[in-house]
Amino acid sequence: MVVGTSSHVGKTLLVTALCRILKKAGKRVAPFKAQNMSLNAYVTPEGKEIAYAQALQAWAAGIPPAVEMNPILLKPQGNLTSQIVLNGVAVGTYRAGEYYERWFAPAWQAVKEALARLQQQYDWILCEGAGSPAEVNLKHRDLANMRVALHLGSPTWLVADIDRGGALAHVVGTLQLLEPEERALIRGIVFNKFRGSRELLQPGLDWLENYTGIPVVGVLPWVDWVLPQEDSMGIAANPLLWEDRRDRAGGQALREGRLEIAVVRLPQVANFSDFDPLLAEPTVHLRWVHPGQSLGSPDVVILPGSKTTLNDLFALQKTGLAEQLRQYSGHIVGICGGLQMLGETISDPEGWEGIAGTYSGLGFLPLTTVLQPTKVTQQVQTQSRWPALAPIQGYEIHQGSTQADPSGCLPLFEQENLGWRDPTGRIWGSYLHGLFDNHLWRRQWLNWLRRQKGWDPLPDLEGHYAQQREQLLERLADLWQPHLDLGLLME
């Protein structure tokens, strides 16, 4: 098991790297996270919803994502509530106290059953904790950390972020707050995000090993490129993330000749990993725009997915960004919740997102959406009709049904009710997550935009973003493997 001194110390990335390292060593390995809080989700082949981070770890292990890898997913939606996804199916929206009172026992049972199924299929299970295992006010109801380690009797590594400063104190303090039986399971300490002199650090490591009696099993170098963030807090912690990656990809000198795409940073943005393939395009400059900021003059504005479509729509209207969009003359794209916002009305007859009623959308497409209790979670294979014919793979995660007026918009795909565009193609929206992962379709769309500017087209690109993701996973494993005591891990 891997736990951390806090959130965002690198637990997810370490488990991902270890999954790939063990896979390359010929081990049958699976990832596991009992409870994840994230709006970045994925749909398994069986139509079950799990955190995208566990899907990524499964790909690192060379196996298909499965609901057993993340039996509990909490999806925050404001007002101190979260939607509870248990065994891949949404079971309701609750405040924290209500959730633990009603669902703690069945959730823990689901955790144990998921682990038992994984144990029957794999030689190794790499379990990831959540936040910190030493939150004394929460430990009695903590499903994700040392309760799992104790249940399994699992050797555990404790990870600290050394870039933040105070990492030695974080480790010592965490160990001090663990119960004796929990502390006995900590077999190694890992420092992540190191970019200093190991020679200067070594005296501190020696002291820590002598003081705690626990070996330091890894000092992992800073990674100046990233895999998809686990949740939107990663964006909040580093709002310039995309801009930083843009500069490393070619710098300001390449801005000319590149399409500028602005993605609206909605308060409850979901599935922002949809846009990672655009980051991999050297001719695209991607940036965030927060409600209240100036839109500027990008070539394209994307409204991404949202956990609370109405509240995020209201945020656009209150901050003036909706009016900026109406005055904007470039291309506008909506994905999932963003698609719903592009329409004329959104109805919430049961008040799933707040007060029941019908509300005006942005009015860019003749669409009407009704929010419903039944959640659509399924993988999709279809064919695009625009901007050219291309095979499409993706997945749906949404609560709501959308109807289109065929006299005012055209379908994007052969399969109905997945997306629509205006007759010019300037404005379009789709329910499909993972749409930009399709290389051929993405290049066709980018070339359609480039032709509008009189630019030469890019060469067609066959395949899927999964191939580039594989290269990143290999790169991560190769980078970190020399810095980990894998001998101790194998023992």
The end-to-end distance, rounded to whole angstroms, is 14 Å
Helix/strand-derived class? alpha/beta
Q: Rough shape?
A: globular
Sheet with most strands: 7 strands, mixed
Strand line-up of the largest beta sheet: 15-13-16-18-27-26-25
Question: Could you tell me the strand content as a percent range?
Answer: 25-35%
How many beta-strand segments? 27
Number of discrete helical segments: 16
Radius of gyration: 23 Å
* Spans where pLDDT lies below 50 across 5 or more residues: 236-254
Which range best describes the helical content: under 10%, 10-25%, 25-40%, 40-55%, 55-70% or over 70%?
25-40%
Mean pLDDT across all residues, rounded?
92
